[in-house]
Amino acid sequence: MQTDREALRELVDNWAVWRDAGDWDRFARVWDEDAGWMTATWFQGPAKDFIAVSRDGFERGVSILHFLGGHSADLAGDRAIAQTKMTINQRAEVDGVEVDVVCTGRFYDFCHRRDGRWTIVRRQPIYEKDRLDPVDPAARLELDPALLARFPIGYRHLGYLQTKAGFTVKLDLPGLTGEAVQRLYDEGAKWLAGSATAGEVG
Hints:
By secondary structure, the protein is α+β, with helices and mostly antiparallel strands. β1 and β2 form a beta hairpin. The chain contains six helices and six strands, in the order ααββαββββααα.
């Protein structure tokens, strides 16, 4: 019989595989159907809206892929906080040069079990560090230092690329250290202790 920890790991794995494969019907099943909430650099809102905009981007050829690493989970009855090491890989053009951005961090997931099934109530990535590389090593790209400096160190290049691609990027997301990530940890502890909500979202 599958343990809760195994079920939580499967939940996180399914998120990445089904989202990146464009398997939207199954992707919808990883989220709490009433309260699911997704935060990313370029999107903050209900899971159903995230699914819709992700599908639209997928069909237009937007290339954002996710790879997962180590995983841990803290459980309290029917609630859990799951943390999973991840990388976000996005390919796009910046000023006419095709580039890859790789951002390393963690998915921090507020999860609960309802009717015997674990789902994600809130996903908040933690952005730890990133880099940008031209796909063609011979290509030259000059970054705008003022634009680059607008974004926190953990997702500086990802924010730069996404802004150049027309997205509005949120500027105060959690990084490896600092007030934002400490607030997230506090919200996670309150969730495990029975808080009515999965922290502040917006």
